[in-house]
């Protein structure tokens, strides 16, 4: 066996976790949702036909993977396969729980996960709208959290300052 042959086969064997989120991705998700709704109706019809006396169903269904939650860093197995060209661009959701749910994911350069809904925002803006893309870019930028934390801390500092004639004169007193 040559070195090159084993390298290419190992590269081909690596799973593909990251695919860009496109309009075709959204159409595929909607098709899966429609198929799931049909299956659900068939299952409910089948359950209605058969009598169930034992209602001890403790299964709550599938759950999202805890290590792929919003705000968590990518797991090591996925971080190794993550290419920097996919940083800060919308990707198809790689958590199997969200397979039938219209969501997309953005992974930052620091490999943190941000999950967004792929439905129309305010019934007007699709996930591909320029306004929505800018809003998502601002939310996922590293400085956004810093600005929010700085604002909160400065507000706390102002609130604990002792009263002075200047601060007293700015208060509005209704009589």
UniProtKB/TrEMBL annotation:
Q: Which InterPro entries match?
A: VGCC_Ca_Na
- Reading the lineage from the top rank, the first entry is Eukaryota
Instruction: Please list the residue ranges that the record marks as compositionally biased, kind Basic and acidic residues.
Output: 40-51
Any transmembrane segments, and where? 134-160
Region annotation Disordered: residue ranges?
Answer: 40-70
Keywords for this protein: Membrane, Transmembrane, Transmembrane helix
Q: Which PANTHER family match?
A: SODIUM CHANNEL PROTEIN PARA, VOLTAGE-GATED CATION CHANNEL CALCIUM AND SODIUM
* Protein's recorded name: Sodium channel protein para
Q: Organism source for this protein? A: Orchesella dallaii
């Amino acid at each position: 066996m040559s070195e090159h042959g084993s390298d290419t086969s190992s590269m081909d064997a690596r799973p593909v976790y990251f695919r860009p989120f496109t309009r075709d991705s959204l159409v595929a998700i909607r098709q899966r949702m429609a198929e799931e709704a049909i299956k659900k109706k068939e299952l409910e019809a089948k359950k209605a036909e058969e009598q169930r006396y034992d209602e001890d169903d403790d299964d709550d269904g599938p759950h999202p993977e805890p290590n792929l939650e919003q705000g968590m860093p990518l797991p090591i197995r996925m971080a190794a396969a993550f290419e920097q060209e996919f940083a800060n661009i919308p990707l198809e959701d790689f958590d199997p729980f969200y397979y039938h749910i219209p969501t997309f994911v953005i992974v930052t350069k620091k490999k943190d996960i941000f999950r967004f809904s792929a439905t129309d925002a305010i019934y007007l803006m699709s996930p591909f709208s320029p306004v929505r893309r800018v809003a998502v870019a601002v939310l996922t930028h590293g400085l956004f959290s810093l600005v929010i934390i700085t604002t909160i801390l400065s507000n706390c500092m102002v609130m604990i300052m002792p009263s002075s004639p200047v601060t007293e004169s700015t208060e509005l007193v209704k009589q």
